[in-house]
Amino acid sequence: MEQQQIINAIHRVLRDTLAHPHLSGFGPDARLNEDLYLDSIQMLQLLLHLELDWGFTIPEQALGQEDFTTVAGLAAFLERSAGETEPAVPDTAGSEPGEGVHGEEYEDIKVHCFVSCVCDALKQAGIDHRPYYFSVWDADFAIEPGWVLSYHAPSINHDIFHYWFERLYGIPLQQWYRPDASRADNIATLCELVEQRPATGSVMVMLDLYQLPERENKFNQNPFPHYVLLETTADPDVWMMRDPDYRWEGELPRARILQAVDQPTVAGGWRFDRSTARPAPPEVVRDYFLACFQPERNALTEGVRRILQAHLNGTDGVQLSNLSHALRELPVISVRKYGYEHAFAFFWRELKLADADFESWCAVIESLIQGFKTLHYQLMKLGQSGDEALVPAITQQLDTLDDTEFRLKGGLAAVFADWCAHHGLAAGDADVMEGAA
How deeply is 264 buried, as exposed, middle or buried, from its count of CB atoms within 10 A (0-12, 13-18, 19+)? Predict the structure, then answer.
């Protein structure tokens, strides 16, 4: 199949099969994310239909999307894959080598909106926020009725983040949102807090990011509960919205922001002031690590196994064809595994360990993230095709993910013990808040 025919096939899948609404700018040079607004899940859906409906071979490396950013790039990649020619060289134009783990401009990681928002205050205060990510890679998720994986549910709270932020950094997190108050009263409180925010203060609110299309949100989940920071501007009808998790900030109409807050699917808000911030004491960092660390289990793969088995068995009436929907939020949760990088970086910097060894652990972390992308694609393919012959490969992929994550946890436990010894601390049980972990 020639490249133009492949481009036509891509367009037909997006238009006819996926009913994608953002095709006005479709063309060979259209960027898949920035111009066509395809998020990672929609990219997997596109690749899946190109494989199942059009017969293309989708190599595993395609799931990382390093080889293409445009429609023409994807078409060329599929053409090369079909012809079994040399693999493409990833496009790295514009990229620059980093300074390594010991550099002043070490790359930040954004994987959890609550954590990113409160860490924004630490960064402004010049305080190392990396230890706060110890609880992120195994942060809570829910399995809701219908055996659906969810990153946001009424059963999930931020108690562990709330409690340990003050213990670590001396900044109280105050929940201004009152669950027992009306939505109108909470919005009135939000307006008052934003308008009276001190220079060192932060006002955080949960809103439905799906309701702000002008925010150019590339993640088209509906609804999309998400924490952001709000500030006033010189215009009382315009607010500054800062989204540390997606590295975005800009001015938006106050009314549009409040509309996104005034949704039945979202509820939450916190305030804090960095004027009391201090670096985390080593003994508290030790206690926090021990409170969060789960060396004997990987909760996410456990949850996926349960959901998979429920759909294979028809538990509670669920059907295998619903598996893609049930695991739609797997990428949102699995990306939290990048939190391991912050933990390794923190210990590596404090112990002044070799940058090359840190990079080796980063490669393991990246293989874990890419492995979850492969798993998600396999599960979507199973749900779409109903072919249970795919199950053994999925089980093997889950086993591989477990092995990789246990390897990371073993390496982290070892460097944590070295760090404790460096500070003269025992790496044993800590006196932690009951129920926080």
Answer: exposed
139: in domain:
no
CB 219 within 8 Å of CB 209: yes
pLDDT at 84: 46
Tell me: pLDDT of 388 over 60: yes
> How far from 36 is each of 20, 209, 360, CA to CA, in Å?
9, 18, 35
- Are 333 and 151 contacting, i.e. CB atoms less than 8 angstroms apart? yes
* pLDDT for residue 147 is more than 90: yes
Overall number of domains in the chain: 3
Residue 35 lies in a domain: yes
Q: Which two tokens stand for residue 89?
A: 């060289």
Counted residue by residue, the chain has a size of 437
Of the candidates 93, 39, 108, the residue with the CA atom closest to the CA atom of residue 341: 108
pTM attached to this predicted model = 0.82
Question: Based on the domain organization, do 319 and 231 belong to the same domain?
Answer: no
* Cα end-to-end distance, the chain, whole Å: 54
Would you state the structure tokens that stand for residue 115, as one six-digit string?
A: 């954590």
Q: What is the dihedral of CA 411, 412, 418, 423, to 10 degrees?
A: 170
Report the CATH number at residue 266: 3.90.70
The residue segments making up the domain with residue 38 are 3-83
Residue-averaged pLDDT of the chain: 88
Q: How many CB atoms lie within 10 A of CB 151?
A: 20
Q: Give the pLDDT score at 105.
A: 54
Tens digit of each residue's pLDDT (9 = 90 or more) over 172-185: 999 999 999 999 99
264 and 169 inside one domain: yes
